[in-house]
Each structure stands twice: as C-alpha cells, then as structure tokens.
C-alpha cells in the first residue's frame, strides 16, 4: 500500500485558549478546514472561556525554542503563523527562530483578547516593532494593535492607508490593516507600500466572533503554504472568515466563537 503525500504543513506559534475559540485551538481547526497539516508551538496557557481570560501562564523560552526546532527540523514547514507571545523574551525568541526559517511568516501581533483582556506586556511592544515585524511576510494588526504599535488612531476608512504606512516602516513585506471595528462594511487594507488591495465584506450582526483574528491569520498562512500569492491568500482567507463569522454560535454565557468548520458543512 503506497503512502499518501502529506498536505502542506503550517506551524502556529501561539497561546492555548482553553475555551477552544481562539489561539492554538482556532488555528488548528482553521488549518484542518482548509486542507493543510497544522502543527503547534505553545507559548502560553490561558484559563479562558466565553466571558474572558481568568489567567495566563507563559512557557519558558527554552520550551518554546525546543518545540519549534523539533517540528521544523524533522517535519518542515511551508508557512508559520504567530499569535500570542505575551512578553519581550518570548517575542525575541520567536523572532530569532523565524529569521532562521525559510518559510513565509504571518504575524498577528495579538495585544488583547476579544473580551479586552491584555495578552501582551507593554514592555514587549518595542520587541514586536524592532524584532518581530521585520521578519514578517504579512503583519495583520487590528486597529487597537495599530494604535499601540504606532500611535496612529484609525477613525475612518481613509485612515487605514496611514496606519498601513506606519506598520510597514517597521519592516514587514505586507501589512493587512483590519478595519472591522469601523462603522459600515467590514473593510481591510492590504498593501506592500506600492500596491493596494481593499477587501470588503458585508457586516453580520452576529455577536459571536471570538477568535476572528487568529482564524484570519491562520487562513492566510494556509493559503501561503499552498503556494498562493499574498494578495490571493488574503482574499481567500477573508472569504473563509466572513463565512465563519456568519456561522458563529453561542457558547457559554458570553461571546461565542466563529464557526471554523462551516465550510465542511456547507
């Protein structure tokens, strides 16, 4: 019996969400739904549910480094996605690992959870700016993360271009500024400083959107692992996430997750 060829491989470097809506759990569900093999490096463990984050514990840098090298050295990767890195030492550890890996990197500079809980120490912001963003193929900050990293506050659609320029100054090849918190349609701007791609999707009134950012970044990484260009990977990811948001469901007493498996049941 001949063995089947392995699907494209994507590595997520992020924190664990015990409620299953975001973080490592969202990443792996997204990767499965999009037909790639997901692998993980856990950077932190959270006690988290639909109401918020009740606790978070970082893993030692040695543990993060060992997980990463174990996977990349044996299995290999076609794309890497980063999420919750929590502290400056973890950011710098992961940035150094990415710099030595020949694969595109999607950096989601996670600052706060959907519930407003801080997931990145303020002291780590400079490390994100100077170490992590320069090794990113695509950086995917939301508007709060843009403000924290650059001081640029986006209040209307026209401000997205200025926000993208401020992020690009730190060195990522592409910036995807997520404008989902603006009024009107959900609009994002993807640019490398020379070409622009505006991505629009109808806004859904579904409040169950936990894990949206993690899911989008993982979907982009999946597309890159399959060989798509950055613009095509982002467009495909936007389509997938729009469907996941529309299908989001209630879970627990607070904000439920997007439905990572909606396409499997469509």
TrEMBL record:
Domain spans labelled Pyridoxamine kinase/Phosphomethylpyrimidine kinase: 17-259
Molecular function via GO: hydroxymethylpyrimidine kinase activity; phosphomethylpyrimidine kinase activity
Transmembrane portions of the chain: none
A Pfam family of this chain: Phos_pyr_kin
Keyword Magnesium set for record: no
Alphabetically ordered keywords of this record: Kinase, Thiamine biosynthesis, Transferase
NCBIfam families cross-referenced by the UniProt entry: HMP-P_kinase (TIGR00097)
Function: Catalyzes the phosphorylation of hydroxymethylpyrimidine phosphate (HMP-P) to HMP-PP, and of HMP to HMP-P.
Name of the protein described by the UniProt record: Bifunctional hydroxymethylpyrimidine kinase/phosphomethylpyrimidine kinase
Taxonomic source organism: Streptomyces coeruleoprunus
């Amino acid at each position: 019996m001949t063995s089947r060829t392995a699907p494209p491989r994507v590595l997520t470097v992020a924190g664990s969400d015990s409620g299953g809506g975001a973080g490592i759990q969202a990443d792996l569900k997204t990767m499965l739904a999009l037909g790639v093999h997901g692998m993980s490096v856990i950077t932190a463990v959270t006690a988290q549910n639909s109401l918020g984050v009740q606790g978070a514990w970082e893993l030692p840098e040695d543990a993060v480094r060992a997980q990463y090298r174990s996977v990349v050295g044996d299995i290999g990767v076609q794309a890497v996605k980063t999420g919750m890195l929590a502290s400056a030492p973890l950011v710098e550890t992961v940035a150094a690992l990415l710099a030595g890996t020949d694969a595109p990197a999607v950096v989601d500079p996670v600052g706060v959870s959907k519930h407003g809980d801080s997931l990145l120490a303020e002291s780590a912001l400079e490390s994100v700016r100077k170490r992590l963003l320069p090794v990113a193929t695509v950086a995917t900050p939301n508007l709060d993360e843009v403000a924290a990293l650059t001081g640029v506050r986006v209040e209307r659609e026209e401000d997205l271009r200025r926000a993208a320029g401020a992020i690009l100054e730190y060195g990522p090849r592409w910036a995807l500024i997520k404008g989902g918190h603006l009024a009107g349609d959900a609009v994002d701007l993807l640019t490398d400083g020379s070409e622009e791609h505006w991505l629009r999707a109808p806004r859904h009134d579904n409040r169950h959107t936990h894990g949206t950012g993690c899911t989008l970044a993982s979907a982009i990484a999946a597309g890159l692992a399959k060989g798509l260009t950055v613009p095509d990977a982002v467009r495909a990811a936007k389509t997938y996430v729009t469907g996941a948001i529309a299908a989001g469901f209630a879970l627990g007493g607070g904000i439920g997750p997007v439905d990572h498996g909606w396409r499997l049941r469509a």
